[in-house]
Amino acid sequence: MDLSGPLAWAIDALLALLLLWLALRALGSPVPLEGVIFFIGFGLTLAMVWVRLEVPDIALAEAAIGAGLSGALLLAALAGLRKVGGQRDVPGPADPGHPPDALAKDTSGDGRSGSPPAAEVAD
To answer: What is the CA radius of gyration of the chain?
Structure first.
């Protein structure tokens, strides 16, 4: 089907805006699962852009590799991370189980407020 004129411009503009929005959401997502989902959506939308540019071989490769395989690997990696640790290494504001000042507690008893011990210098 040959699209030309204002309809083609509207479709191309919509795809361009959707790509930009998906890229920004994938990169700026605070939740890793959301980022992966937006990444997969980005790959599928990019495949549609390649179809609009009339290169179906690249569109198929983008859909299969860019969205399919890469997305599956990222989801598997994310599942593996959740199985291994499930907790963050450093508590912070995004970790509701620990207050933001958990690192500042004095646990050593020497009054240095949780900072790691300084290296001793030999005289």
So the answer is: 24
Tokens 């795809």 belong to residue: 15
Q: How far apart are CA 51 and CA 8, in angstroms?
A: 13
> Is the pTM above the cut of 0.85?
no
In single-letter form, the type of residue at position 79 comes to A
pLDDT along the chain (123 residues), means of 10: 80 96 95 94 95 94 93 93 65 52 53 54 55
d(CA 18, CA 47): 12
User: What angle is formed at CA 118 by the lines to CA 112 and CA 120, rounded to 5 degrees?
Assistant: 130
Report the C-alpha gap between 45 and 61 in whole angstroms: 13
